[in-house]
Write a structure and sequence with these properties.
The protein has three helices and six strands, in the order βαβββββαα. It has 141 residues and is an alpha+beta fold. It has one domain. The strands form two sheets. Strands 2, 3, 4 and 5 form a four-stranded antiparallel β-sheet that branches. A two-stranded antiparallel sheet has the order 1-6. A hairpin with a 2-residue loop joins strand 2 and strand 3.
């Protein structure tokens, strides 16, 4: 079992630190939406471990293909197809760099004050974690 370090960090601090990148991703996804692709910067997985419900967040590049299936009433029906972590076609412009690519942590359901980070991840991202704890943004412009 991987040992995790418990940090006192409210999720809002991570969201705030990541805001600048989310804006860049929104702009990027508008550019590539006509090609039927979508880039998600975070993958979220919920898992029950014993009595705990853990919510894992993995930061990276997660490519999806959007397939339009038609209309149901006046609402479009779409299907999301996971493509992978690599840019699906070369003609797509390069996406913005994810400042937290490779970072992952989990929270416990109902606990918004703590995140749990593996010791390896903590060591690798220590500088960025310290910026997050200070409430700073982590994007480079």
């Amino acid at each position: 079992m991987v040992k995790a370090t418990k940090l006192v960090v409210r999720n809002e601090k991570i969201v705030k630190a990541f805001e600048c990148y989310k804006e860049k991703i929104k702009e990027y996804n508008k550019k590539v939406s006509g090609m039927g692709y979508y880039l998600k910067p975070v993958h979220i997985v919920t898992k029950k471990v014993g009595e705990e419900i853990r919510i894992y967040r993995y930061f990276g590049k997660y490519w999806w293909k959007i397939e339009y299936l038609g209309l149901k009433g006046n609402k479009p029906v779409i299907k999301w197809i996971y493509i992978g972590k690599n840019k699906p076609i070369e003609s797509l412009p390069d996406p913005p760099i994810n400042p937290l690519e490779g970072f992952s942590f989990y929270t416990l359901k109902g606990d918004k004050d703590h995140i749990y980070v593996s010791e390896r991840t903590y060591t690798k991202f220590q500088n960025k974690i310290e910026k997050i704890l200070l409430g700073e943004k982590i994007c480079s412009d």
